[in-house]
Structures are given as structure tokens and as C-alpha cells.
């Protein structure tokens, strides 16, 4: 609850600037992960979450 209030106050009072660069934010472009995932990363991610991505509509099938 305390964290939630702190986050709300940061947003309400301009403490979070969405235009500010973050070291954890790359480009925000769809599919940008393809530039950073190796084939091994892709295989592991498919094993863990591939079916979920299809069920949620992020992918049409497991051929991504």
C-alpha cells in the first residue's frame, strides 16, 4: 500500500517523466526483442511461454 501511494504521488506530481531515458528501456518498437534474443533465448522463451503468447493473442501460432 505504501509503495502504491508513492507511485501515485510520483505520477501525479510529475516525478516520473516518460520521455526521460532509462537504461532498461530500449526503443519501444514492436519486435525489437528480435535484435536482442539469440536462438537459444527464443527456444527457452517458447518452452516457457510460447503457448501463453498464442492464447493471449500476441502471436498467431508457435512459428515466431
Please give a structural write-up.
With 64 residues, the chain is an all-alpha fold. The chain has helices at 2-12, 39-55. The longest helix has 17 residues, at 39-55. The chain is extended. It starts with a helix and ends in a 9-residue tail after the last helix. The model has no long low-confidence stretch (mean pLDDT 78).
What distinguishing features does this structure have?
0% strand; mainly alpha; 2 helices; single chain; 44% helix; 64 residues
Element layout with pairings:
Elements: H1 2-12, H2 39-55
Brief overview, please?
This protein is mainly α and 64 residues long. Helices cover 44% and strands 0% of the residues.
- What is the rounded distance between the termini? 39 Å
Rounded to an integer, what's the Rg over CA atoms? 17 Å
Number of helices: 2
- The whole-number mean of residue pLDDT values reads 78
Q: Uncertain segments of ≥5 residues (pLDDT<50)? A: none
Series of secondary-structure elements, N-terminal to C-terminal: HH
Structural class: mainly alpha
Q: Strand count, sense and closure of the main sheet?
A: none
Shape: extended
Name the helicity range.
Answer: 40-55%
Count of β-strands: 0
Amino acid at each position: 500500500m505504501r509503495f502504491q501511494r508513492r507511485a501515485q504521488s510520483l505520477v501525479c506530481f510529475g516525478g516520473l517523466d516518460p520521455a526521460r531515458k532509462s537504461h532498461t528501456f530500449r526503443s519501444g518498437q514492436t519486435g525489437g526483442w528480435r535484435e536482442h534474443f539469440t536462438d537459444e533465448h527464443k527456444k527457452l522463451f517458447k518452452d516457457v511461454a510460447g503457448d501463453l503468447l498464442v492464447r493471449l493473442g500476441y502471436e498467431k501460432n508457435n512459428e515466431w
